User: What shape does this take?
Amino acid sequence: MQHVLMPGLVMVLGLSACAGKDSKEETPDPMTEQFRQEILVVVTDPDRAKKAVKLVDQLGQLSADAERQYEKDLEIFHALNASYDTKETAFQGLFMNMNNQARARQRRVLEVHAKMQKLLTAEEWEQLAESR
Assistant: This one.
């Protein structure tokens, strides 16, 4: 079972950051809020600014969801690891699920990125990149 523990923990830590499903974030984190404010300054068209802020909120939500999913995955990992009788296939199932969730989240991030590119001008994009 030792051969599963360390690589498994590394996978839990690495992959869970991108795992999970969307849900509503209670409050935006400071980075999300800062980016929202930067958009409101840089994007002068109120309608496009509002849409861009919604996209930033989606990214913030994806991040918050990933953090919650990480906690769940770590809990499952510890539960599996606590039992001497846990089969390697149980760990493999956990890691497969984590990988699938990570790929789904990555797709959602790329979708938001593409929408943001279509919404903003090249100049606005550069200004926002410089402010980061």
